[in-house]
Specification:
Elements: E1 5-6, H1 16-24, H2 44-61, E2 67-72, H3 75-87, E3 91-96, H4 99-113, E4 119-125, H5 137-145, E5 153-157, E6 159-160, E7 165-166, E8 177-180, E9 197-201, E10 212-217, H6 234-239, H7 249-264, H8 267-288, E11 294-295, E12 306-310, H9 314-326, E13 329-330, E14 341-344, H10 351-367
Parallel strand pairs: 1-13, 3-4, 3-5, 5-8, 8-9
Antiparallel strand pairs: 2-10, 6-7, 9-10, 11-12, 12-14
Bound molecules: 4'-deoxy-4'-aminopyridoxal-5'-phosphate (PMP).
């Protein structure tokens, strides 16, 4: 059976090479005679997996030595609460850039409701403009100039998966900067040193669901609040190297294989080039027929990972999805909260999937 072209926003396509390798060693892993699913997370074989996953991630992202890399559970959604529970002492500010960063903000606000001494501000909101862009360099600079220098942190997002908008460059900040990179981590080189805490669910660019990567600066650990429950305290996972309790072994194992694949592709510079090329091919179709394919993102904030657009009528969108499915172009429906069409083209999306989509979009436009 051939693989369909799959544009899911996550869990998303994984590199076929990584899936095949997992298949080949599924029953007997690393001369143990057992599946990786059956061995102890404290066995030497698994320790090698988690160490390799960390070292490959460090290599790919050029993570500085004074940062910790954690493999946690609970998804990026748990990080929304966990980072506030650990680091919100007095005052934090949030970029409200779209559906996911809004959730992060709401989670901090919820925490604040039972902790009256805390202050949670919206530093900037894209809501009134329909979440069609994220701050550019100039706006980012203006926001920096207004910041309370005593802020515990500001929280931003690099890519809004649902709206299909992205920061085009690393954000920079005078106060600790936390960033949700769930949907574009490893899609381009980033300056990790510009952030104090980065987190990302794995199920888009890193592997299967079930593991969440957190990259945090060592000096932050001294600021962890007292009385955070053990499992929610970042220090627990730093001290125990993500092995305080049983970690999601299979997800970490798969993540390691995806990191191996990424290195073999030439790392993040190569991935970035490919991602730009693929995204441009689809945006070129939107730009060629702007009355028909109506891009949601302002051009200066276009995401390389999630391309969102609407068609002139809901009926045409239904037809688009149905005819696409006939050509094995799957999972193109926009998120239920915003509708329209969304093509997610993460790192592992093959060139021929993008080519097939582009060809279909031209044909559909001609026909309708
Ligand atoms: N942040 C972003 C940017 C996301 O795209 C998602 C999931 N799609 C989340 C957070 C939530 O992630 P999880 O499902 O791992 O909790």
């Amino acid at each position: 059976m051939s693989r369909p072209h799959h544009f899911s926003a996550g869990p998303a396509v994984l590199p076929l090479e990584a899936l095949k390798k997992a298949q080949a060693e599924f029953l007997t892993f690393a001369d143990t005679g057992l599946s990786v699913l059956e061995i102890s997370h404290r066995s030497e074989a698994f320790e090698q997996v988690i160490e390799q996953a960390e070292s490959r991630l460090r290599d790919l992202l050029a993570i500085p030595q004074d940062y910790h890399v954690l493999f946690l559970q609970g998804g990026a959604s748990l990080q929304f609460a966990m980072l506030a529970m650990n680091f919100l002492h007095q005052h934090a500010a949030y970029i409200d850039g779209g559906s996911w960063s809004k959730k992060a903000l709401q989670e901090a606000q919820k925490w604040q409701q039972t902790h009256a001494e805390l202050r949670v501000d919206t530093l900037w909101s894209g809501k009134d403009d329909g979440y069609a862009y994220l701050p550019d360099d100039q706006l980012w600079q203006q926001l920096q100039d207004t910041l309370d220098p005593g802020l515990d942190y500001i929280h931003t997002i690099s890519n809004e998966t649902i709206q299909g908008i992205a920061l085009q460059r690393d954000a920079e900040s005078r106060v600790p900067l936390f960033c949700d990179m769930s949907s574009d981590i490893l899609s381009r080189p980033v300056n990790v040193g510009a952030y104090d805490l980065i987190y990302a669910g794995a199920q888009k660019n890193m592997g299967p669901a079930g593991v969440t990567v957190v990259i945090l600066k060592d000096r932050l650990l001294s600021k962890v609040k007292a009385h955070v429950p053990t499992m929610l305290d970042y220090r627990t996972h730093v001290e125990k190297k993500s092995l305080y309790n049983t970690p999601p072994v299979f997800s970490i194992y798969m993540l390691n294989l995806v990191m191996e694949w990424l290195q073999a592709q030439g790392g993040l510079d190569a991935m970035y080039g490919r991602n730009q090329r693929q995204a441009q091919a689809i945006y070129d179709v939107l730009d060629a027929h702007p009355d028909f394919y109506r891009g949601h993102a302002r051009p200066a904030s276009r995401s390389l990972m999630n391309i969102t657009f609407t068609l002139p009528t809901p009926e045409l969108e239904q037809r688009f999805l149905a005819e696409a499915a006939q050509r094995q172009l799957m999972a193109l429906k926009g998120h239920r909260s915003v509708g329209g069409i969304r093509a997610s083209i993460y790192n592992a999306c093959p060139d021929d999937s993008v080519a097939a989509l582009v060809e279909f979009m031209h044909a559909f436009h001609r026909q309708h």
